[in-house]
Fold this protein.
Amino acid sequence: MNPAPSFTEAERKAVYRVIAERRDVRRGFLNAPLPDDLIGRLLAAAHSAPSVGLMQPSRFIVVRDAGIREAVHQIFEAANRRALDNYNGEQAERYSRLKLEGILEAPQNLCVLCDRENERGHQLGRQTMPETAVYSTVCAIQNFWLAARSEGVGVGWVSILDPVKLRKVLNIPSHLMLVAYLCFGYVEGFASEPDLERFGWERRIDLKTVISYDRYSEECAP
Amino acid sequence: MNPAPSFTEAERKAVYRVIAERRDVRRGFLNAPLPDDLIGRLLAAAHSAPSVGLMQPSRFIVVRDAGIREAVHQIFEAANRRALDNYNGEQAERYSRLKLEGILEAPQNLCVLCDRENERGHQLGRQTMPETAVYSTVCAIQNFWLAARSEGVGVGWVSILDPVKLRKVLNIPSHLMLVAYLCFGYVEGFASEPDLERFGWERRIDLKTVISYDRYSEECAP
């Protein structure tokens, strides 16, 4: 084994910076498509995520076609109207003011799939906890998100979508699991706080309230 | 909104470097416990991961107690013996030579849980895709993993464990979902390739084989 050299203080700071300044972005996308090589770098970052048994189950669909994005946007609109019905009064008003997707404003979207039935990895690590296949794909998404932030590219995860309708629009075969739909692109800027905090939906909780030591402690309950 | 300044070329390189040089580490742990403030930085990185509706559902148990780690290690040993039974001949031999955990060698472990029934976030984003709660927790794990790499700390995800037995040892209440068990600590070094590739278990696949454009393409099948 050739040990890799350690990280400098400046490199370490950059890693913590990207983690702290990553945002879930749904507004302020610029109308400038990302160059292919940049999209390639982001997908390479995703592809090098950890995967159980080295099965690398993640599959990606880069969606640039305006008609397809329009169809996905309609799926969002329907799901979002139904979601709004579950809130009342002031909370409903707050919900309706939130901007929860940038499917059309961002010139490109990304659908992320997991091929969890794939035989690669020969089931290593998946016999007792088979859900680790899809977790591998989520690690890939977080890599993509962080790499994007460092390139000035905003990413927003859109989960207010009917998965059945989305699968149909994107022609996703039944053996692939739909994991995420993201909008991404150059943005005006990145806010210093999460949008949901800025617009009064929820507040972040203190780190101390989510840590236990040695065994789970009931005090760990924010 | 105060837009954050963009990343310098050097910062961007550090982000790609940490993504490329992160490894799943199960060997070479040093017998030197991590300082509390370092563990705190890693957990803060995890805690600042994206979460659906800003619900922040991730809960962490830092396991340092040797007796508890010994009990977890026994759970691994039993599950690993059963896993080995599923392989034959040369593959069984290869499997038995792999080092798949560092529960005892690493002076600390981390159990990661998801409080997916928590009302925080008021169900925003979880009505059509409720699985995004646990995905939020997996994003936290990837943040932890990358921050650790930049600090010279190796992390290994151990999924060869009986979840029921593990829950009992760590006193995890039924409403919390068990997501991951990690061993982590200072290490001798980081290999340049994944262990499973170095030891002939599996090979990485080409990025091009996992990307489709606009709609899923059957050619995207490695």
